[in-house]
Design goal:
The complex is a heterodimer.
Chain A: E1 2-5, E2 13-14, E3 21-27, E4 29-35, E5 41-48, E6 55-58, E7 63-68, E8 73-79, E9 91-92
Chain B: H1 5-17, E1 22-26, E2 35-42, E3 50-51, E4 58-64, E5 67-73, E6 78-85, E7 93-96, E8 101-106, E9 111-118, E10 129-130
Antiparallel strand pairs in B: 1-2, 2-9, 3-10, 4-7, 4-9, 5-6, 5-8
Classes of the chains: A mainly beta, B mainly beta.
């Protein structure tokens, strides 16, 4: 799917249990933030459509959130498997 | 896993060394995925017959370089539409409809796309190749 995200959008820390996720920032700038299960930040990756890195494969089961840094950002997301809403066990709260 | 320019450079180098002048990089969880996700480095001159996918539409995103997707009509056996894709051009991605005859030509060395389809991989059968 394509996903337009704007600065200020709130994405809870979550994971996908059934599949890795391939993401490409088609436009704009988005920061991925990875966490461990104790909600400690472990890695930040900046994806910039005009920069060095614009694509990421988020490993299955990895906790993450994202922050949109530029208005007009559009993201391409691809996962295996049918759509399933995130369960409570797939959302991490501080 | 960060898909860095270095990974794309390596894939392009493999494409150049291949007789088909293209090389893919599997992004699936495993071969038992019910869908296909891959990077595909395509060099100018890479031979790809006009073909169709009867089971799924195909999503193509141009990550770098420049390419043309050509659509063909089965009855008239001619190209009906040619769409140029590039990361910073007016078309960056394309959804090729299910059953649409198509082929692709890279216009620049270093061109890399992502291809996504539903369903497990199946080799293209003879009935899914169009000769002009």
């Amino acid at each position: 799917m394509l996903n337009a995200v704007e600065p200020g959008t709130v994405v809870p820390i979550h994971r996908h249990h059934a599949s890795s996720e391939t993401v490409v920032v088609i436009r704009g700038k988005i920061r991925w933030i990875f966490y461990d299960e104790n909600v400690n930040e472990t890695e930040r990756v900046l994806l910039d459509a005009n920069g060095e890195n614009r694509m990421l494969v988020v490993e299955k089961d990895r906790w993450y959130s994202l922050v949109c840094l530029e208005s007009g950002s559009v993201l391409f997301e691809s996962k295996a498997g049918a759509y399933e809403p995130l369960g409570e066990e797939d959302i991490l709260t501080k | 896993m960060k898909i860095t320019q270095a990974i794309l450079d390596d894939l392009t180098a493999q494409a150049k060394a291949s007789p088909r002048l293209r090389m893919n990089y599997d992004l699936r969880n495993s071969a038992s995925d019910g869908s296909q996700r891959m990077l595909n480095a395509i060099e100018p001159g890479s031979p790809l017959p006009i073909h169709r996918h009867r089971l799924s539409s195909e999503t193509v995103v141009c990550l770098r370089g420049r390419l043309v997707e050509e659509f063909y009509d089965e009855l008239e056996r001619r190209c009906t539409e040619a769409i140029e894709l590039s990361p910073s051009g007016s078309v960056v991605a394309l959804n090729i409809p299910i059953g649409q005859w198509h082929t692709v030509r890279a216009l620049e060395s270093g061109t890399v796309i992502i291809e996504v389809k539903d369903g497990p991989y199946e080799p293209t059968g003879e009935e899914d190749i169009l000769t002009l």
